[in-house]
Amino acid sequence: MNLGKKRELLQKRRWRIRKKIIGTAARPRLTVRFTNKNIHAQCINDELSSTLAAISTNEKELKSNLPNLSGSEKLGTIFGKRLKDAGIDTIVFDRAGRKYHGCIKAFAESVRNEGLKF
C-alpha cells in the first residue's frame, strides 16, 4: 500500500470520528497527535473554535520526552494536571483516526489517572 493511500484512509477515519465527537465548554475535546519526533495534544471547545489548553514535546521543559510509551505516559500525566488546574474535569477523547492501543492508550490512561472523566 503506498503512502498516499494510507494518508487518505487515515483522513477518512478522522472525519468519521469527528462527525460523532464534538467538544463543548462543559466537555471539551481532547485530541492527541503523534509524529515521528513529537507529541502534540490540545483541549478544544468546538462551539467557539478555541483551544483551552495545549501541550507539546516542543516545549522547553518537555523536550526530553520521546513519542513512545514512556513519553506519552509522562506527557499525559502533565497534561492531566494542567487540565485540572484549568478547571476542566470532563472531556471527550478524540484519538484522531488511530487505534486505541499503544501510545494512544498510554496517553489516555495517564490523563484518566489524573482524575479526568472520559
Distance between the termini: 34 Å
What summary fits the major beta sheet?
Answer: 4 strands, mixed
**Portion of residues within helices:** 25-40%
How would you write the strand order of the largest sheet? 3-2-1-4
Low-confidence runs = none
How big a fraction of the residues is strand?
Answer: 15-25%
SS field, number of helical segments = 3
What is the CATH architecture term? Answer: 2-Layer Sandwich
User: Structural class per helix/strand content?
Assistant: alpha+beta
CATH structural fold name:
Nucleotidyltransferase, domain 5
- Identify the overall geometry: globular
Features:
globular; Nucleotidyltransferase, domain 5; single chain; four-stranded mixed sheet; 4 strands; 118 residues; 37% helix; alpha+beta
Structure in a nutshell:
This protein has 118 residues and is an alpha+beta fold.
Summarize the structure in words:
It contains 3 helices and 4 strands. Strands 3-2-1-4 form a 4-stranded mixed beta sheet, covered by helices on one side. The chain has helices at 3-18, 69-85, 103-113; strands at residues 29-34, 39-45, 50-56, 92-94. Strand 1 and strand 2 form a beta hairpin. The chain has one domain (3-113): 2-Layer Sandwich (Nucleotidyltransferase, domain 5), CATH 3.30.420.100. With 118 residues, the protein is an alpha+beta fold. Helix 2 (69-85) runs parallel beside helix 3. Helices cover 37% and strands 19% of the residues.
